[in-house]
Amino acid sequence: MQPDRAASHQLLCACITPSLPEARLALASLPWFQEWEDRVGGRCGFTRTGFFRLVDPGKEDLLRQNVERLRSIGVNTELISGDNLKRMAPDTNIEDVEAVAYEPDSGYADGHSTANAFMDAARRGGATIHQGMTVTGFQVHGDTIQGVETDAGIFSAPIVISTAGPWSGPLLRRIGIDLPLVPSRHQIMILERPPSLAHEHVYISPGSLYFRPDSAGLTLVGYGAGEDGVDPDTYRDAVDADHQIEGAMRMAHRIPAMQQAGMRRGYAGCYTVTPDGKMIVDQAPGIEGLYLGTGFSGTGFKISPAIGIALAELATQGEATTVDVAAFRATRFDEGRMLRANYEYLDRPYDPVPTAGGSSLHADTAWDR
Ligand SMILES: Cc1cc2nc3c(=O)[nH]c(=O)nc-3n(C[C@H](O)[C@H](O)[C@H](O)COP(=O)(O)OP(=O)(O)OC[C@H]3O[C@@H](n4cnc5c(N)ncnc54)[C@H](O)[C@@H]3O)c2cc1C
């Protein structure tokens, strides 16, 4: 196990997503990042930059409808023209951009600081945290959880919350829970901006390109589908040379001045994906007292405050009341009812691909309320 490998990456904090259940989680989480010191204590490194969501030509209507729906639930977002984007970020190539969703309050934060601040707050609240210990199994009696088995002994507990990231699938299979969780490797490039370039915003752009500024004149860039099915203990954590070249080209298309960017060492991290690219937040099927938060499909950081609350509410009240997480139930894959937003852009690697012939990936709009 490689703790915290996945923590050193992009970590965009934005509400922009076509899926309302996910947007609600992001919306509930954003104030935590914004008011971190008061709410949690310590620092999370939240940097407000504003966020641009660009889509492929021809998808402006989807963007417009999503912006309206997001605004209807309280997200501070608006549709702006390509020309307005150019005014706000003059180095952007807008030749293929007609409309952009702009979210002024969003930005990015730091994974290590966030996790450490959460742990410190938990300790102050009375929690005991054991690190450097591996959970090797669950103790289940009948249909009830009784604790966890670790390499340092058994811990009895009437409630267990399992958030094992890419290790979740094999761990849960040990007690007969077989969920479609696939560990996937994703690469992040680090580019040195030319000194004249003041890149200040976070972007998601067609070609599943996403990038954000970092300190010291650096820009972090990710794109494309990951390498699915890797072993989270042994995957290659450096960036592949061909990936780097392709990424630099995509970046230079969107921000032409980045043609002059220098290359720094990048890195790869691993996260879990599900077939519909949406998380599982639920009681474990058939096991009383065991709760799951997994399969976040590359979006788990920005919603982590709300997910923590939802899992605590599920475990203590039987229902998440702060934000409804019913859409993310574990059984939806077996039921053949995968989660889809009403207006998907279908330009992210894990967006569902509609197939002909009435597959289960057809829109289940009842869930996207
Ligand atoms: C390259 C990259 C870019 C990303 N960008 C973003 C982004 O921009 N925005 C965003 O919101 N999200 C992003 N993510 C996704 C985000 O990092 C994950 O969704 C999030 O980390 C999931 O949190 P988690 O706690 O569920 O799992 P993890 O962060 O994977 O943590 C799981 C933890 O469980 C521990 N563990 C596992 N098994 C055991 C065991 N048997 N015993 C004891 N401990 C165990 C591991 O050591 C680890 O510390 C990105 C991920 C990557 C890799």
UniProtKB/TrEMBL annotation:
Molecular functions per Gene Ontology: flavin adenine dinucleotide binding; sarcosine oxidase activity
Ranges of residues in domain FAD dependent oxidoreductase: 21-314
Cofactor(s) this protein requires: FAD
UniProt superkingdom: Bacteria
Record's keyword terms, sorted: FAD, Flavoprotein, Oxidoreductase
Gene3D superfamilies: D-Amino Acid Oxidase, subunit A, domain 2, FAD/NAD(P)-binding domain
Pfam family, one: DAO
SUPFAM superfamilies: FAD-linked reductases, C-terminal domain, FAD/NAD(P)-binding domain
Name the UniProt record assigns to this protein: FAD dependent oxidoreductase domain-containing protein
